[in-house]
Amino acid sequence: MTLSPQAAIAWEVGVTLLQAIAIASTVVRLAHRWRTDRMWWDDWTAFPPLFFDIMYVIILWLRVATIHSSRTKGEVFLFSTIFNVFLFRSVVWLSRISLALGISRIFPPKHRCRYFAFGLAALFLCAYIVNITTTALFHAGPPASACSTEDKECTRAAVRVWIMNLITLTFDAFADVILVVTPPIMLWKVRLPRNQRRLVLALFSSSILSFLASLAFVLVWMLNSHLGPNGYFIMMLCAHLQAFVCLLVCNLLVVTMLFYRVFRRVTLPDPSPTSESSFDPGLPEHPSKTHTTISNPSAPTPQHLNLSRLSDSPPETQSSNSTMTFTTIYEGSSLPSTQLSALPTSRSDSNGPTWTTTPSFDDTSSSSKTPPWSFPE
């Protein structure tokens, strides 16, 4: 049974909408990293798959536009199998490279998991080169439409294509299994708040979606001869589906954390409803230049303490200090942690002590301070 032109266009519209989601997620991720001055290797390597995926979608619709053209699709290089496989494999493997570099970004410098992620990215790059090379070599020969069962050259070309597909699918399965297994193992012993820990592990484990898309492509490729005239069209849709999933998974952690942070800003309740917070909106939003003071409104004019002079005060005027440490996972391993120290002043009046909260931000690059994440060596 052959699909009608209307049904084929409906399927292509659905695939295009999915591809638009992946492209939009990449644009949001890159715009956010550029705006916050957080561009790194994983972000720069996300540009090529974005470009190739846009071209891949455009060619999908150019096929529809040239159905009634006098030139056949086989005569146009844009519609050739080699070029389409090149775009498809470029989106898939470059997205995996960006994801591997994103995993390495989480860990501090000289950490063994960071080096392992770098090696994983290099391995994916080698697999990408092998895929493109085998595609260029093994697809050389007469087209399948011109072949007959008695032609030995066509038989050899079919064998070469089968070997190329087998190598490609083996690499796909190997890469997807690594991306599914390694992130939870590397992040299992990282000390995080429970809700953030579950979120990070779930997002990195989303690579299983890429594995399922690769599995669907393998099944369609194996059953291509039993699908009739719709076999190539279904395989093309599965290829677009796999490209969509790989590009989306590549950006999922950054985009989800961005919306997670915005959601927490909107819904996080005031931890001290009885106190007043003084904040100057004119100050730049930089950790080293942010200062928040919480004081008792019923007390006289509060006198802010200088932390460097605490050691000079008499022991009887100092009370036990309570310290709260908040960690963040939003911007990678180089993010600072926020430490709020609530220290009572030495004023002894009837209205009670005045509390001054001074945020200090620790840079994880400094070896003398504790990083926001605790990584086992």
Task: Please provide a written account of the structure.
The protein contains nine helices and five strands. By secondary structure, it is mainly alpha-helical. The protein has a domain at 5-70 and 78-144 and 156-267: Rhopdopsin 7-helix transmembrane proteins (Up-down Bundle). α1 (5-35) packs antiparallel against α3 and α1 (5-35) packs parallel to α9 (231-267). The longest helix has 37 residues, at 231-267. It is globular and about 60 Å long. 24% of the residues are buried.
Describe, in short, the structure shown.
The chain is mainly alpha-helical and 377 residues long. The protein is built from 9 helices and 5 strands; from the N terminus they run αααααααααβββββ.
Map the helices and strands.
Elements lengths: L4 H31 L5 H4 L2 H19 L15 H26 L5 H27 L13 H36 L6 H11 L2 H16 L8 H37 L8 E3 L14 E3 L26 E5 L10 E8 L10 E8 L15
